[in-house]
Amino acid sequence: MTVSLDSLFLTLIIFLTRLCSVSTAHVVPLEASKDPENITPGRQISQELFDSIEELAHIVDIAYCIGTTGIRKPFQCLSHCDELKGFELINTWHTGPFLSDSCGYIALSHPPSPKRIIVAFRGTYSIPNAIVDLSMYPQEYIPFSPGNDTDGDAPKCEDCWVHLGFMNAWRLTRATILDTISAARDQYPDYALTLVGHSLGGAVAALAGTEMQLRGWEPVVTTFGEPRVGNKAFVDYLDTVFRLESGNERVWKFRRVTHVNDPVPLIPLTEWGYEMHSGEIYIDRVELPFSVDDVRYCQGGSDPNCISDAEGKSTTFSPYSSQGFDLSESNMEQQVLSRSPHQSKDQQQENEKGAFPYLESQSTSCLPWGILPPRFRLWELFYSHRDYFIRLGLCVPKGDLSGG
To answer: One Pfam family, short name please (predicted)?
Structure first.
């Protein structure tokens, strides 16, 4: 078996981030390149789609309340619940903090909101576990039958395989989710089916959505920061099932939203045989907030004008950047919480000084950040990977840490 240099490199980085106390590694995020010659004219999304995706970011952010402060009926939580009019909670699930962790909720969206059955898949709180999970072995993908659990009636997916952890996460909750949706569809036959997921939850949403599409349920799937789910054969299969190969992005039923500098859509690695599927919508602005001019459609699964452009780039390293943080697990959550997307840089720096007085010492990192390409920039798990219209993963009042 041939082991690529990138595979060994990522393994080394995973090992070091678990064992090394990285006190002040400061990283300068790469700005997005907005070269007009490299942007296909007229491919910016509409304001209507922008508003819809922004609402879905709030909807999936609420899933991060599960396992912490919780979501209560009819639809109450510490996050954005009261902003979503006409929502009714049906069910929640949480399989536990393991490698195949799956967590989320199912809700109804009644008027004045659009009539929908919504399934929201949360990402993971455990970044080290997520990194290990992304290195798990793949397994053969056999589509579920639309009518039952045999594969006799399902379209064949020849030589397809998917990430084992993602598939296990879907299998753990599959029966509960499908039964709940089936009952809701019987009760509300005129309600559309909407799936949304962030991070690892995006991968589970992709697998769930594929099965629901095969069942004829016609879901609209939106993911934020979705990792690569399977190999080229699976990607081609998903593109066919959702009719993404047509090239008419305005009828897409699967929107894979990515953000500049987010490393997660670039893993698992292409060297391991994984690829991205079509349906990409790309945000090319680094910092919140975004406008409709910052978001555009992409072509295929590897558009060089979108997240794939970062595949081979390197990053820059500065020992005095205000973007530094400690990768040791004990400080991860505190540092994310100290950086509200609504705070000024001065406020963020003041928070960091109080939370991490050692930052002023500017000691040297033990990791060679300067040679890392974007797909290995694991610190962006706390920034670009969470910044999708809002900063995802923070179950706080109104989703706003600044209190404004």
So the answer is: Lipase_3
Which residue among 199, 302, 308, 338 is the active-site one?
199
| Inter-residue contact 312 to 302 (CB < 8 Å) | no
Can you give the residue range of the structural domain that contains 90? 47-311+375-382
Does the annotation count 198 as an active-site position? no
Prior bond of 112 cis (ω within 30°): yes
Active site residue 385: yes
Instruction: Please tell me which residue in 262, 294, 309, 326 is annotated as part of the active site.
Output: 262
Please give the DSSP secondary-structure letter assigned to residue 293.
Answer: G
**CATH number, domain containing residue 55:** 3.40.50.1820
Number of structural domains in the chain = 1
3 state SS of 72:
strand
Q: Which of 27, 24, 22, 9 shows the shortest CA–CA distance to 384?
A: 27
Could you report the per-residue pLDDT of 323-360, keeping only the tens digit for each?
444 444 334 444 444 344 444 445 544 544 443 333 33
Catalytic residue among 58, 80, 198, 385: 385
Q: How far apart are the first and last CA of the chain?
A: 55
For residue 379, give both structure tokens: 């610190």
Active site residue 26: no
Dihedrals phi, psi of 120, to nearest 5 degrees: -115, 125
